[in-house]
């Protein structure tokens, strides 16, 4: 087993020239092979004579501006020296988007690239705290480097070490794949170290052993720990995921791909109302009748009709009884349907019109909506629509709130690809919880055992602080 010391952050710090001279001339010697990153400021550039890397003293090696260090055991260490700069050409102590792109390209072009074992950077990656445990006083939405986030998202390091914020932070491991949609991959761990010898006695040394990825059993490599979280750089990966959305198995302009989560292969159905080999159009399915009194079938005497706002051909809009806000509304089918998955195409079309009208209405009032459905222990579909002031939170804040709350209750809330539909991930009769933002972004949880019935109302939304006074106006033109 080989030992080495990897240094991130500013290696020289306040070291006096006299002390360093003793190492440079061989009077003192580093006890084990030591690998360091380059300068983070103009004052220390003079210690690094060769930007491509060189030996600074016996057992002390400067890795270089950027690149890959491969050990004899097969261990792969990616590194990026300096701090982020938007200027070109960059100073000797900076890196730019060009450096990040070239480093990514050199690795991603490698056949069957899965990731690197270790990534070393001086700055923290921006947004690394998303969906994870708290980094204390460090605001990861404001500090750190977006370029480093981009690099980490692409290189998928098993361990990512950084410094410069003078704080210790060991983030919960995060995924590098989309559950149920991509082949499982290894998790990544981000660890930030404080400065050496700090008076607060924050941790500045992290000891660990690692077997190179190339030598590991594939099944062992992709094991997911219980505390794994969503990837904090999801926004950066969104564009890459667009190309991987579910598409037709064949090149047909009017078909759609449906799949069963319990099967390995999907079942393709034509969306033009005809089965292959059968020229007879399908008969429209009548909604099933309720087995007992239903509070939401519009023809039922149990419906509290004073709450109804708008009635369409297949759906109606009603104020929520005991709503979170005065303008908390429900979109409901007039007939008896249990979930969105059970709806006929005409009902889906009218639900879409209501959502579009509500989006336009709420945006005119300076709000955005979040919609959710709980298809569990409920017999009639209720789409809960709650408006949130635009200046209170972004769509990313809403998603993060739901995901964080889900993780705290051991609920796996997954993002559905942008151009996909709830019917593509759930079959009729499947219990699930479903969130949709007015941007079209969707989150999904397949309920397998039990589920907290008030999760949508008091789990994800309570954290957003949406309990504010809002006004509601009727929608006379909801179906325009």
UniProtKB/TrEMBL annotation:
Keyword check for Cytoplasm: no
Record's keyword terms, sorted: Membrane, Transmembrane, Transmembrane helix
Residue ranges, annotated region (Disordered): 265-290
- The transmembrane segments are 455-475
UniProt domain Cwf19-like C-terminal: residue ranges: 283-391
What's one Pfam family the UniProt record gives for this protein?
CwfJ_C_1
Output the Gene Ontology cellular-component terms: post-mRNA release spliceosomal complex
Q: Which family does it belong to?
A: Belongs to the CWF19 family.
- This chain belongs to which protein, by name? CWF19-like protein 1
């Amino acid at each position: 087993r080989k030992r080495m010391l990897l240094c991130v952050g500013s290696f020289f710090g306040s070291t006096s020239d006299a002390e360093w001279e003793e190492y440079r001339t061989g009077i003192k010697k580093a006890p084990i092979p030591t690998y360091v990153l380059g300068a983070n400021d103009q004052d220390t550039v003079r210690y690094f004579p060769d930007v491509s890397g060189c030996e600074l003293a016996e057992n002390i090696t400067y890795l270089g501006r950027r690149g890959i260090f491969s050990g004899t055991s097969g261990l792969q260490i990616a590194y990026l020296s300096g701090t982020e700069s938007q200027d070109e050409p960059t100073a000797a102590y900076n890196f730019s988007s060009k450096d990040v792109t070239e480093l990514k390209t050199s690795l991603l072009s490698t056949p069957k690239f899965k990731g690197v074992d270790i990534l070393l950077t001086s700055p923290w990656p921006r947004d690394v705290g998303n969906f994870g445990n708290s980094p204390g006083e460090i605001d990861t939405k404001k500090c750190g480097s977006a370029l480093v986030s981009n690099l980490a998202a692409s290189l998928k390091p098993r361990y990512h070490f950084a410094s410069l914020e003078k704080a210790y932070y060991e983030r919960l491991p995060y995924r590098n794949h989309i559950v149920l949609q991509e082949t499982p991959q290894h998790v990544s761990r981000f660890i930030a170290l404080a400065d050496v010898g700090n008076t607060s006695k924050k941790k500045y040394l992290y000891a660990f052993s690692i077997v190179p990825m190339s030598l590991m059993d594939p099944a062992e490599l992709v094991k997911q720990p219980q505390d794994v979280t969503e990837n904090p750089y999801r926004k950066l990966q969104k564009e890459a995921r667009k190309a991987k959305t579910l598409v037709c198995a064949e090149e047909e302009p009017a078909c759609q791909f449906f799949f069963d989560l319990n099967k390995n292969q999907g079942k393709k159905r034509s969306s033009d109302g005809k089965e292959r080999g059968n020229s007879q159009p399908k008969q429209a399915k009548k909604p099933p009748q309720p087995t007992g009194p239903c509070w939401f079938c519009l023809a039922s005497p149990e419906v509290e009709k004073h709450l109804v706002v708008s009635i369409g051909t297949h759906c109606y809009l009603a104020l929520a009884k005991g709503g979170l806000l005065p303008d908390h509304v429900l979109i409901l089918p007039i007939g008896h349907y249990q979930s969105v998955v059970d709806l006929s195409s005409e009902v889906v079309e009218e639900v879409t019109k209501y959502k579009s009208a509500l989006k336009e209405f709420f945006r005119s009032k300076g709000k955005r909506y979040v919609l959710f459905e709980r298809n569990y222990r409920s017999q009639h579909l209720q789409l809960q629509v709650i408006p949130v002031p635009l200046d209170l939170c972004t769509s990313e804040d809403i998603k993060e709130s739901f995901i964080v709350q889900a993780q705290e209750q051991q609920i796996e809330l997954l993002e559905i690809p942008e151009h996909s539909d709830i019917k593509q991930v759930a079959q009729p009769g499947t219990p699930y919880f479903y969130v949709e933002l007015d941007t079209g972004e969707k989150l999904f949880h397949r309920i397998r055992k039990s589920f907290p019935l008030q999760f949508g109302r008091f789990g994800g939304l309570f954290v957003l602080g949406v309990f504010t006074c809002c006004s509601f106006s009727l929608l006379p033109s909801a179906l325009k």
